[in-house]
Amino acid sequence: MEDTVYEAVTIPRSQIRKMTYDDRTFHIFVSIPDVTPPPSGFPVIYVLDANSVFGTMTEAIRLQSQAPEKTGVYPAIVVGIGYPTEAPFHPSRYYDFTHVVPASELPAHPRGGEWPEMGGAEGFLSFIDDTVKPAIEKDLPVDRTRQTIFGHSLGGLLVLHALLTRPHAYQCYIAGSPSIHWNESVLSEEERRLPSLLTDDMRIRALLTVGELENDGRFAVNVKAQAMAKRLSAMGNGQIEASFRQFPDENHTSVLHVLISHAIRFASKPPAR
């Protein structure tokens, strides 16, 4: 009997690039639509925790963009910032997605241990803005007026940090199940300073979401996320259009796939005027 030869499954028109930051190697997952780009270039979605969601988002766009008149989803470049691991999540996300806060503000560790080192959010956002984005824009037809950043849980927290401190960096911010309780005091101070960063020409859309089953009373993520969306929409001279959505019958993990399908439609909407 001849030996059976198996081939690895790959995602069409996708690649992994390796980039270094802070003496660490990151895997940058990139997928490119298989259609001719519009004159202005493709919209681009920057995805945190790429090891867990890049494939799902890429395939969702590839499928749904076949009939945009029905789905509301158009071709887009997906750029996932991930780690050299086959696991869905890497421990470094605790450092990369957070600011330093007193231990008294952190939730209890579910296994009674100590949380990993934290506090790298500002540097990590700079890595994306100063290294990842220029490399992508150099090689691919990107529409710089249609840039989205997407994150879930601690990734959603980092999206909020980006919105509150770098409102000029993206036009669309999607924060799924954001861990507001994790850095709440930092977020409050950043939110207080945000109006000074807004300019009249900015048009920003933001989406904050949770799963219905996440509302177990511990962190009030639904109440806090909805309240933040309302405050953001009332800020400045209407530069921010923020909305909140709660997905029925979904928990903190299961909500990801529903969120991704909704997020790619949200990111596909024309820029706010």
UniProtKB/TrEMBL annotation:
Task: Answer yes or no on keyword Hydrolase.
Answer: yes
| Gene Ontology MF term list | hydrolase activity, acting on ester bonds
Task: Report the source organism.
Answer: Brevibacillus gelatini
Q: What is this protein called?
A: Alpha/beta hydrolase
| Recorded family membership | Belongs to the esterase D family.
Q: Name one Pfam family in it.
A: Esterase
Q: Which UniProt keywords apply?
A: Hydrolase
InterPro entries attached to this UniProt entry: AB_hydrolase_fold, Esterase-like, Siderophore_Hydrolase_D
Keyword Hydrolase listed: yes
